[in-house]
Design brief:
heterodimer; A: mainly alpha; 0% strand; elongated; B: mainly alpha; Alpha-Beta Plaits; 2 domains; 16 helices; 51% helix; globular
């Protein structure tokens, strides 16, 4: 990885991503993620 | 000349295995037939890793995206989309090559001996667009539009397609729970059939799920050309010998486009370059 090269566009996109993720957390999306993730997803395993 | 002799694989499988173990470290779940229910599961992992895997300590970003889009109160997943932009902006499909447990499984399956390995076929390039269609239809549109009376949509990609959920979640949980065994039906049979096809194809073709189906790979592929960590070709050093293209199992030609959307940054081309022109 150390020999790979950086990109300003990539940094900009990553920062935008962080801001978007932060907004998602602010409006409460992670509670939906947590609720889905801590219960067995019947659809995912092929039962529901 | 046997081109296989030129392939120099970096020590990637160790990193993949370590990461898979780290993100599936709730080992008690495999003994008890239960899943981890701690707060860590609010965090997404970068690779395709079913959150109903008994060992999973994080959330699958594709499953999480469908959960938020399919919820009654949110119709866009800022948190998951932002997470994917963050990871993609930093490393693109490096995740596919190094940090995805289902990628590791396919890598290992492809090492199994078979009389003829298929590198490419007619329609290969076109079929690679399928993952973008699957992302749009099964991950975004269907959970958004096909909702029940409460306004909730199902995770249609997980339900109808994802073989990782069957392998990582379905099989261990069903094996360890009598009540689940009694609830098996056509859907479970369908998903196991898809898993079987994926396994057989993985022996024949290198990473068929990543090439043709994976919506997460589709997302990260968009970021490949602009990600912070990416490859660069030293055009002055490159002798156009074609070794990098020959050793690439994703059928990319790094000398022409080192950051092609199909590149999973496995590093084989970089290690195989005789003049070290790929950085």
């Amino acid at each position: 990885m150390s020999r790979l090269h950086s990109s300003r566009t990539g940094i900009f996109v990553a920062v935008c991503g962080l801001l978007m993720a932060g907004y998602g957390i602010y409006r409460g999306e992670i509670s939906v993620v947590l609720e889905k993730a801590i219960n067995i997803c019947m659809e995912c395993i092929g039962i529901g | 000349m046997d081109k296989r002799k030129k392939i120099k694989e970096p020590k990637r499988h160790g990193v993949q295995a370590l990461w898979a173990l780290l993100t599936n470290s709730y080992l008690a779940g495999f003994l008890q037939g239960k899943i981890y229910q701690g707060k860590l599961k609010t965090l997404c992992v970068p690779g395709l890793n079913c959150y109903s895997c008994p060992g999973a300590v994080g959330a699958c970003p594709i499953g999480a995206m469908q959960a938020v889009i399919g919820s009654w109160n949110f119709k866009f997943a800022f948190y998951v989309a932002g997470f994917l932009m963050f990871v993609g902006g930093l490393m693109g499909r490096f995740v596919c090559g190094w940090l995805c447990p289902f990628g590791l499984i396919q890598d290992l399956l492809h090492k199994l001996p078979f009389w003829k390995k298929l590198e490419t076929f007619r329609g290969d390039r076109l079929l690679r667009k399928l993952k973008y269609i699957i992302l749009l239809i099964f991950v975004i549109l269907m959970p958004m539009v096909l909702v029940d009376v409460l306004g909730q949509g199902a995770p249609y990609f997980c339900k109808l397609i994802c073989p990782a959920g069957t392998l990582e979640g379905g099989m261990p949980l069903v094996l360890l729970n009598q009540s689940m065994q009694n609830a098996l039906g056509l859907l479970y049979a369908w998903k196991n059939l898809l898993l079987l096809v994926t396994i057989l194809l993985s022996i024949l073709i290198y990473r068929p799920f990543c090439k043709y189906i994976c919506p997460l790979g589709a997302v990260y592929s968009v970021f490949n050309p602009i990600s912070v960590f990416r490859y660069r070709v030293d055009q002055e050093a490159c002798i156009n010998c074609g070794v990098c293209a020959k050793v690439c199992k994703m059928q990319v030609n790094p000398a022409k486009n080192a950051n092609h959307p199909e590149c999973i940054r496995c590093g084989v081309c970089r290690n195989s370059c005789p003049v070290k022109a790929l950085h």
